[in-house]
Amino acid sequence: MDLQDKLLALLSENQKKIEDTSELADLDKIRVNLLGKKGPITEVLRGMKNLEASERPKVGSFANKVRDDLQAAIDARRGDLRADAINRKLEKETVDVTLPGTPTRVGTPHILQQVIDDLSDLFLGMGYQIVDSYEVEEDHYNFEMLNIPADHPARDMQDTFYITKELLMRTQTSAAQARTLERHDFSKGPLKMVSPGRVYRRDTDDATHSHQFHQMEGLVIDKHTTMADLKGTLLAMAQHVFGAERKIRLRPSYFPFTEPSVEVDVSCFRCGGKGCAVCKYSGWIEVLGAGMVHPNVLTAAGVDPEVYGGFAFGVGPDRLAMLKYGVDDIRSFYTDDVRFLEQFHTEG
Fold this sequence. Notes:
This protein is 40% helix and 18% strand. The strands form two sheets. The chain has a seven-stranded mixed sheet with strand order 1-4-5-9-8-7-6, with helices on both faces. It has helices at 3-20, 24-35, 40-46, 56-92, 111-125, 139-142, 174-183, 227-242, 295-300, 317-325, 338-341; strands at 129-130, 136-138, 167-169, 191-200, 212-222, 248-255, 258-267, 284-293, 309-315. A hairpin with a 2-residue loop joins strand 6 and strand 7. The protein is α+β, with helices and mostly antiparallel strands. The model has no long low-confidence stretch (mean pLDDT 87). It has two domains: 3-92, no CATH class; 111-344, Bira Bifunctional Protein, Domain 2 (BirA Bifunctional Protein, domain 2, 2-Layer Sandwich), CATH 3.30.930.
């Protein structure tokens, strides 16, 4: 058998072997054994040294064609095997798009954050700005600027955690009012702001008290602001939180930073004012404190009290949440018990 016949036999035999291969790994072995340096084609070509010089180009050309044909057959089979592998994988991993999706647990804001966000949206819609401020505050802004000097007895009710003699954990978000009032440019318009955040007081934790809780302070300063504006604002807030049928009443009170000062009650949303255990059979529930800004507070911030005046109020989101949702222990908001918090899950 001459060299060309050997090459033809080699081509025919291995084309069939390549076509019958069903695994890529086996195909690669065939490629290495057939076309490698120690393969049969190379062995055949070594016999060319025994040919006449005129025969060598013809046999060499034929050998290269056989090599190319085998390489083409290998490449074609490799493409088929890869396509088959992909198709098998797709069939195995087929997804039935008609099946219902797997529900994913989505978190929701903490109930206190929900109340704060709801109030913030309300006041934003009324033209207020939302002001964030420091939880570690200066005594100057937390007390002095709010008409509470060092020897004022009101400080006893707001004993807090001191870091230094002048730095403390703020006892009220009113400190943000003092800072904002100090830097506000009234030539650009009135000041309308609310400031939500955590406050801290040295208190014994029980069902209705906590050493840390939340407040939202509101402040409006303009040239012609009256108690009627304050009452209308608080009525809008009470009806937004507790329902459109709610009414409010103002009772005289005392706060160092407002004069006159009032406690604000809302008609009971459980009994409609008829009297029940929630309102202690009075028909009213106390919800916040407010009043007209004290002239000393305006003067401390460099604002002329003969020209400008306004009102301030402070509401506790914790208390609103307790009243609205019937929570009887403020500590439930801070223990991170998922069973409790899941009751206030919201969509969206």
